[in-house]
Amino acid sequence: MPSQKFQFSGADGQLLAAVLDMPAQKPLAFALFAHCFTCGKDVLAAKRVADALAMHGIAVLRFDFTGLGASEGEFANSHFSSNVADLIKAADHLRDMHEAPKLLIGHSLGGAAVLAAAESIPEAKLVATIAAPADPAHVTGLFKEHIDTIHEKGEVEVSLAGRPFRIKREFLHDVANQRLMEKVAHLKKALLIFHSPTDNTVGIDNASHIFLAAKHPKSFVALNGADHLLSQKKDSAYVAGMIATWAMRFLDAQPKEQPMPAEPGTVTVQETRQGKFQQMISTGPHRLLADEPVSVGGDDSGPGPYDLLLAGLGACTSMTMRMYAERKALPLDRVTVTLRHDKIHAQDCEDCETKVGTIDRLERVIAMEGALDGEQRKKLMEIADKCPVHRTLESEIKIVTRAKG
């Protein structure tokens, strides 16, 4: 999906780095995503959920909190209240540039932050939390052995997820003074809670506390088998799909109809009308963008037409070699196919029938990993030339074009 990168001013005037993931068509709604403690806007869970929601027609703004990722400021000077204030500023930016977010989504401590910020974003109708703590002070458990030293010295460097962070006494005071459940009790917005029963970072009891404190409409979804960071792609895709389905009911909106193939093997390409050349490619349940480089007037939001042609040949080559290797029990560990397209003078091609003008030249370099002997490598190279796409490209092709009535 197309993404827009920019900066906006946070609550303390620092520039915060942001990404707005847009759907291919006009958004049904805008959402604001708050990432987990010490993470960032590009953490896999945030990116995957945003991408999936964009596929459902919901634009998602995600950004790095102060002192994290590409944002300005010092992490040591931030705390839970400043994160909440940054969320409110992000909503203000969305309101000024597009429209205010109707949906707030928060992961881990970001979930607690959106619950706290919700009352200050009146346009938000919906709040979704993922593995959120019921008390922001829960995060201090990540560095509990340093708490006494932080109180004594005022500031200490701790290691979190293998990275050094400075935590100040003010951070401890700030999270200790939060009354989050009081805000949840007066949320007055639809609430959707996601939590894994096997979350070892933020226990499932936190979801119970949030659910019991909230008033209806409220829903709970158990993420069976998921870890705290939603490191499995299927878990983040499931979360995004559930949020989109749930949100449509409250937003009184229907997902945009996407072009679907009439039968298996059909590919549909449709202009998105975003940028000069951007196209949405649909085949079965799959979606991807095609575009042109900025140098020729595109937005470079997806591969170009010739890139896709090369990708088809490369994928077919690798798959065909893999099938042969599996059938013959060859020790082929990995295939890497590198391709290029250019045009050459026909007279420079000795084995080409065409001798006038220019011809297209596809260069394919195949690397094979594994304990293969010379004869096995030779045979696999022969098999590469037998891939169906290769044969199609070298055979006579007739393209039939007709206008749809």
Layout of strands and helices, then pairs:
Blueprint: E1 3-9, E2 15-21, E3 29-34, H1 44-55, E4 58-63, H2 80-97, E5 103-107, H3 109-117, E6 126-130, H4 147-153, E7 155-160, E8 163-168, H5 169-176, H6 180-185, E9 190-195, H7 205-213, E10 218-222, H8 233-251, E11 268-271, E12 279-283, E13 286-290, H9 305-328, E14 334-345, E15 358-369, H10 374-384, H11 388-394
Parallel strand pairs: 3-4, 3-5, 5-6, 6-9, 9-10
Antiparallel strand pairs: 1-2, 2-4, 7-8, 11-12, 12-13, 14-15
Helix pairs in contact: 1-8, 2-3, 9-10
Describe the 3D structure:
- By secondary structure, this protein is α/β, with parallel strands linked by helices.
- The chain folds into 2 domains: 3-251, 3-Layer(aba) Sandwich (Rossmann fold); 303-394, GMP Synthetase, Chain A, domain 3 (2-Layer Sandwich), CATH 3.30.300.
- Helix content is 32%, strand content 24%.
- The chain has helices at 44-55, 80-97, 109-117, 147-153, 169-176, 180-185, 205-213, 233-251, 305-328, 374-384, 388-394, and strands at residues 3-9, 15-21, 29-34, 58-63, 103-107, 126-130, 155-160, 163-168, 190-195, 218-222, 268-271, 279-283, 286-290, 334-345, 358-369.
- The strands form 4 sheets. An 8-stranded mixed beta sheet has the order 1-2-4-3-5-6-9-10, with helices on both faces. It has a 3-stranded antiparallel beta sheet with strand order 11-12-13, with no helix packed on it.
- α1 crosses α8, α2 (80-97) packs across α3 and α9 crosses α10 (374-384).
